[in-house]
Backbone:
């Protein structure tokens, strides 16, 4: 951008500026500042106008600025006759690997729409592992979601993040932590063995209980949880002693 400002290639400079401003939420203006020796972006945050230097932006913002600036620069260089309309009128195909990389979930919901609005005649082919990206495609007739493993299109429905993670990305019980799921598995194994044997000193049972107790430590200060565990154990043992 600094070189463009010095060379007075106005149509290229304006294309790059428009692309940056179009992509950054709340951005009003972008320019190269000689004193700072970097790009500055004027943006509105919580109703206040602030000027933010490039180095203070997150990795996600910096990566996105670099990408759209490069796209706009190439468009303006190859199609100078389009002048101010170059980023709106230039056609092309752009491949993006991991479009959600380093982006905050809130921006992941906006990035596809912003790209398509900034470069309306460009076809983007992007990969992503983000349920927020998938969710943002709902209701868009200009987007196609493709399952690479099954090599087929995916119907985009109005689903929650958890449903998308479970149904589309095959994550078991995404609303639960891995620690919680591990504890559930340990509890099931322990109580299954407890039902099978009559001897509380059974070595396998003791090992399973040790594993279960280890995973239950984060919940040990919950009296209701502790009482429930004791009740379950006592109930099983009482049933066996009848």
Residues:
């Amino acid at each position: 951008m600094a070189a463009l400002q010095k060379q007075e290639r106005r149509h290229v400079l304006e294309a790059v500026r428009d692309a940056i401003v179009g992509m950054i939420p709340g951005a009003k203006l972008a320019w190269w500042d000689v004193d700072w020796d970097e790009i500055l972006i004027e943006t509105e945050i919580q109703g206040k106008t602030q000027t933010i230097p490039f180095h203070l932006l997150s990795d996600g913002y910096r990566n996105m600025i670099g990408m759209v600036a490069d796209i706009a620069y190439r468009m303006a260089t190859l199609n100078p006759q389009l002048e101010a309309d170059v980023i709106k009128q230039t056609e092309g195909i752009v491949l993006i690997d991991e479009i959600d990389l380093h982006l905050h979930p809130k921006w992941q919901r906006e990035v596809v729409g912003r790209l398509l609005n900034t470069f309306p005649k460009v076809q983007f082919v992007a990969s992503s592992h983000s349920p927020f990206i998938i969710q943002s495609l709902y209701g868009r007739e200009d987007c196609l979601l493709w399952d690479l493993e099954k090599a087929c299109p995916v119907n985009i429905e109005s689903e929650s993040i958890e449903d998308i993670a479970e149904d589309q990305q095959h994550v078991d019980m995404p609303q639960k932590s891995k620690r919680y799921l591990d504890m559930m598995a340990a509890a099931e194994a322990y109580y299954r063995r407890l039902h099978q044997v009559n001897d509380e000193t059974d070595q396998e049972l003791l090992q399973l209980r040790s594993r279960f107790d280890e995973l239950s430590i984060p919940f040990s200060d919950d009296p209701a949880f502790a009482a429930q565990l004791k009740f379950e154990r006592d109930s099983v043992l009482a049933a066996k002693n009848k």
Observations:
- Residues 114 and 153 are 23 Å apart (CA to CA).
